[in-house]
Amino acid sequence: MPEHIPSELPEGDPFGADTLPYGVFTTPDAPDHPRIGVRYGAHVLDAAAAAAEHGSAYADLLDQPVLNPLLAAGRPVWQAVRAEVRTWLDGPHFHPLSEVTLHLPFEVADYVDFYASEHHATNVGRIFRPNAEALTPNWKHLPIGYHGRAGTVVVSGTDVVRPLGQRKAPADERPSFGPCAKLDIEAEVGFVVGTPAPANTPVPLGDFREHVFGVCLVNDWSARDIQQWEYVPLGPFLGKSFATSVSAWITPLDAFDTARTAPPERTHPLLPYLDDSAAEPGGIDIRLEVSINGEVITRPPFASMYWTAAQQLAHMTINGASLRTGDFYASGTVSGPGEDQVGCLLELTKGKGPYLADGDEVVITGWAPGPNGSRIGLGEVTGRIIAG
Ligand SMILES: O=C(O)/C=C/C(=O)CC(=O)CC(=O)O
Ligand SMILES: [Ca+2]
Ligand SMILES: [Mg+2]
After folding, report:
1. Is residue 1 predicted with pLDDT exceeding 70?
2. Active-site entry in 120, 147, 211, 268
3. Is residue 381 within 8 Å of 361, Cβ to Cβ?
4. What CATH number is given for 111-386 in this structure?
5. Which atom of ligand 1 is nearest to the CA of 117?
6. Domain Fumarylacetoacetase-like C-terminal spans what residues (predicted)?
7. Which residue out of 220, 221, 230, 345 has the highest number of ligand 1 atoms within 8 Å of its CB and is therefore the one to mutate?
8. Nearest ligand 1 atom, CA 224
């Protein structure tokens, strides 16, 4: 296959030299050779080939079918590789994005999903628990989360088969079994752990950057009818474990330096391990956009999240739990204060539906402000619903 050299990127391309996300790709002439690529404009740089040509010390780390060895190498290596990649951008070894296949970029170790948007938690609380306080008493004191199913995390573009399960609406006399009738999306932002931490060594807020490699887009597909019947008292289970989609591109955390922003004002004093009042701004200004069948339905603002990714990591490890390379955690549904900023159909339709139909295609995109007015693109996470 010919290798192209991309011409100058169009003005404002969100995949310029300030972005440079990593993914894993194959080409039609070498379908059995997945390797690490870097997105640049509408092209993918074959980082493995460029590294080999330049005699880079990181050639082996980049000629891999998953990002995990690079993730495990730690922050000094992440920074050195990113600097070297920048020097390869005017060389050969590019493939048009339209000619490659993108794969799940990392082997997921453990997967955790949080519940960190005050707007989402309030809206869902009102719909699911109309006779109780919308926010539970613990909500402002710790980032609530649940353990998801790492083995069902799939890459963007993977079809999502409508799940089967038990449903029982409050008015039904007994549960029934069948295909989910309330299939929903959740627009989220994900964080990929690189550097591990041994057991009993909690990660303080200030060490977030040492451990988290990068950021991606997430769709936490949710079967609301299954979820509402099964979740008491232990939380989400089969209603969310059938599939969770992630974008094919993992953008290094350093690309979001100009997008750092202060999280919302904390209304309750926090225990010291979560107190970020003196820390660097923990929020990130990422603007999400969700479309169904080509029509934009909502624009959730990640900057509005109450709990930050650094607080989530600190909380996840404060009990002594270890951290592994490839651990993956999602922010929780991103919902802003506006009705056109909510991150799922449950909120958008106030619990009444309609939900996803077979054949619907969902696309979540996102970007953040970069240096000098540039944009940092997060790509997209897509999925089409297939009848079960
Ligand atoms: O309030 C509930 O019972 C559950 C709400 C969710 O579906 C939460 C979830 O997956 C976490 C999130 O994405 O914010
Ligand atoms: Ca979720
Ligand atoms: Mg899920």
Report:
1. no
2. 120
3. no
4. 3.90.850.10
5. 14
6. 112-384
7. 220
8. 7
d(C-alpha 283, C-alpha 267), whole Å: 16
CA of 226 to the centre of ligand 3 (A): 13
Q: How confident is the model at residue 11 (pLDDT cuts 50, 70, 90)?
A: confident
Q: Mean pLDDT, to the nearest integer, of 355-369?
A: 98
Q: Which percentage of the chain shows pLDDT scores above 90? A: 94
How large is the greatest C-alpha to C-alpha distance in the chain, in angstroms? 69
When the pLDDT of each residue in the chain is averaged and rounded to a whole number, the result is 96
Return the CATH architecture of domain 22-103: Roll (2.30)
Contact 42, 97 (CB under 8 A): yes
Q: Where are the domains of the chain?
A: 22-103, 111-386
Q: 9 vs 33, which has greater pLDDT?
A: 33
Predicted TM-score (pTM) of the model is 0.97
Q: Which atom of ligand 1 is nearest to the CA of 240?
A: 10
